[in-house]
Amino acid sequence: MSDIGYRIKCIRKENSLNQIQFAKSIGISQGNLSEIEMGNSNPSAETLISIRTQYNVNLNWLLTGIAAEDGTTYVDEFEKRLIEVFRNLDDYDKNEIIEFIRVKIKLRSI
Hints:
With 110 residues, the protein is an all-alpha fold. The protein has 7 helices and no strands.
């Protein structure tokens, strides 16, 4: 069983889904999913993106099985950099940054 196939199977089982349900949710056939889980084929880029989107899975972890050094997974490099810098701020500055982000989000929805 390939590592990526095993991780995909774990995601499916963590969500208490059978192969038919999981395959349908990510837009592939049950047979294709079975082949991926057994390590006989690799998922397409579209399938990986669908899994990431539908099940909020870190794509780096899905591809490599590796999370960040501290065990944290990040959505992308931007999120990782933001968290690393944010951790070095004092509480006042952290609150200010949070409010700034909220304003940015609100302005985008207008």
